[in-house]
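Consider a concrete sample entry:
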Amino acid sequence: MKKLFTTAIIIASSLGYGQEKLENSLLWEISGKDIKTSYLYGTIHATCNNELNSNVKKALQETKNLYLELDMDDSNMQAKMMSQTMMPEGKTIKNLTSEEEYKILDEFFTKEAGMSIAMLNNMKPMILSSMLIPKMLDCPMKSVEAGLMSQVKTENEEVYGLETIEDQFAAFDAIPYKDQVKDLVRLAKEGMQKSKDNFQNLLKIYQSENIEKLLDETSKEENGIMASYLDDFLTKRNKNWIDKITNASKKERSFFGVGAAHLAGEDGVINLLRKEGYTVKAVK
């Protein structure tokens, strides 16, 4: 159960819209002004293969610190995550759904997660949706973040977070529970195969490194409720990260790994850094 909760929380891909056409690349070099040359890399939180290519390994060797969305090296991470998974007292899946919807959810989670919805009745609906991510893969689930951490540990580098667990959950909690549960019921009605097909499509786009297409696809309604809450889940977070990225890069050459769909778009991290006067170019 704890493993499912951890999986649920680190799923955090994001959405947005592009302006200037960006090259197909997950790895970007940040330079100029008063910073030490650093790197920005688009990750995916659930995949079959998290092996890093030679350019990424080289960039990690050239930098002193690794920054992820969260400090995944924090020994208290699991406890902090668990403390954020439940809805406030008085809010339950049962009282947010009709009798028919509750039955649909119960049958769906019994089949796909091996547990009755009654066992999960107090959990936030988006966490329940995210618990199903491993079912969308035809392999044991890995994350690119884990691959990055494994690489830097051999070099005794520090791992930091661009935001806290509380920051990340604030983005989830900005979405009303009634809308979250509505999306959960939709997922259950459509069945796991459709969600799996959608996720596999996103995974192929990620592997092609087409970050603009990835952003366009993830912002389609059929790929989840977050498409309706772009400002909270994407824009605000991206803007909050810019000062942290630049301040860290002023001190040391650093490597920043964030969900790939954070990169593109008018309010994507690449464009926001360029607006601040920094040079951000693709590493091919």
In short: The mean pLDDT is 90. The radius of gyration is 19 Å. Residues 105 and 111 are 10 Å apart (CA to CA). The chain is about 50% helix and 10% strand.
